[in-house]
## 1
Amino acid sequence: MIHLLLALLCVPSAQAGDDLQVYAQVLLEQPETLITGGLIGPPQSRATWYFFGDVEPVQGNAMMALSSGSLDRAPLPGTDLGAGGIAGDEAGIFLSLRVPDDAHSLRLRYRALAPVDGVERPEDEAQWVVLGAPDLPGGVADLDPYAGGFLGSASPAVRSGDADLLGGTLWSEVGRLSRWMESVVRVEPGSLVTPTIAVRDRGDDPLGDFVLLVDALAFDAGRPEGVSPGRVPLLSSVLPALLPTDAEAPTALLQGRDFPPELQVQAQPSDGGEPVPLSTTWRSAERVEVDASGLGIDRWGLRLLWDHGAILWPGALEVARTRPTIASIVPATADPSGSTRAVIEGSGFVGDVRVVVGERDVGDLQVRGSERLDFVVPAGDPGEADVLVFAGGDFVEVPDGFTYARAAPRDEEEVPLPPQLVVGCSTGGAGGALLAGALLIATPRRRPRRRS
């Protein structure tokens, strides 16, 4: 392991070049998470393939191959794969990735091709290191390319297709191909992780070399709990994801892959309370039905358990009232220009939520749980407006639930006041007669205008 980490430190970033981008696009199901990375070892020990003989990727349209011998750029099964590597040689890739905000695990999907005749394990080894994973203090993840066993020449799986990979070569007699397997490690949302995948040559015997086929590195929302490498269930969807409390047959269909017949399913409360076992009906490795009878209102997590571990998918199944309700709208009055923030309290605000005031959708809608909505009131015409909330596949309407009204004006205008008496004096002709007169003058004054 020390040799591998030293190799990572000694690889210049320029070595990756365009090849790194190609390999990252092949490996990563979320390529936007890539920050940087590098390649390890000679390029003739790495290759990207659409398929390897008749071995196709589980998902996507390409996969990466790492060889402890010489693979060359255009590998031909049975020719250069058996070339002996030099003891201590390593080939691989390391990537620096930003974990998505909704991800709790990183999955490595792989299988091994080893020219082994009567040997349980070749001398060469594969390594899977994830720096930044909270459950891996030393960074070393559990990766056993042979945990799933090899498909020998007598295997129906090999006869139906995989044997074409080795047909007409020395390996058709001695080759062994493992099943597709996965190794899963827990990661923290939003954190930085650095996974490394590499193979190391441990001897000069060409029959000790092997090829590690890597289908994908993928982040997932599931939280692993003591998962061993092998066939690891993946939950891709729940239909329906929202069940009403008054459903006559509250059954949900789980869809994914690698569901074993002995799979158990538990419903995990959102507050972390005791899980509730669910009755399951196994349909296939891709479909399992669960009976949600007895589950109360909550956003339940689904925990899948099998012989080699468990994975929890938080909030995968929601149980809610059939119809939303509105208890209050505060404030219930605003200026027609809009922009006022308001809050609706009630219940059943689950699933896809939409709020309409009058004939316009509200702005900046924030769902603060199933009982509170926060939003910006849209502009509207003066007068009353209906309020509608769509949630949980249903809606509720409050006729005239909101009022658009202008605020009382504060402007001033000139209003005539009663005439006031003004006295003026003047002097006249000879004799200094004093003439006094009274002049009535209407003087305008300002006063606030009152509005009834």
## 2
Amino acid sequence: MRQPGSFGLHTLAAGLFLLVAAACAPERHREPRVALLCPSGMAGLLAPLTEAWTERSGMKVQLAEDSPERITRQVNGGAPGDLYISAEPRWLTDLITDGHVNPSETWPLFDDPLVIVTRAQPERPVRHPIDLARPNPLRVALPEGGWTGRVGRAALTEAGLWSGVREHLSQPADGPSAIAALVSGRTEAAILRRSEAVGATTTLTITDWPHSPTTRARVDLALLRTAPHRAEALELARYLTESPEAQAALQAAGLGLSAPPRPDFSPG
């Protein structure tokens, strides 16, 4: 599994380079694999699931992660890929609007709640958002953009904590960067998506933000229209959304669905 750190354009570019190189290689050297494009910080969660599917199917999976904005631009630019995981519904809507995804070939994967993360044995435990600001504000990392940055700031404001923590707030580029800052001791807590926290290689303490529909993002799985391995990608989608093994793993990670999925895997 990966080490927590900063994931950006280089990560996705490296994955896409391998995919293009494989497609251009002579037949005897070609190693087919399903390309799964996912948001930064989610590969650690997905890797054990895709490895289990590889054991069953014999088909390898290439995980390429980057920010949702960059993945969307790459897909719009014709980047190769089979399956796409949407960090929030608006990115999937963009790809459907642009003609890269058939609306009937999308499936809900899990609900991704906002959480507070600290080191395994913090000097000051955080059991509730109010602990971030009282009695003294902690040094908190909140990713600058995307769903986490937008919803995290709104949640702090709604809880009446924004004014208390903002002077002690750092805003790294993404979830993996926030985890790196936490592990190094530069910050004492981080506000993240649960999928980012459970996928980290280091042991962390995770505290759920008080439940609210606005602090949970629906994560969807979609088949790209130009998927070069369509049949295998559909089988992987079926495994991730239907198999007891994958569902049990997601539930154990606190990443269930608020409503049961109704996938349809007919090739169409």
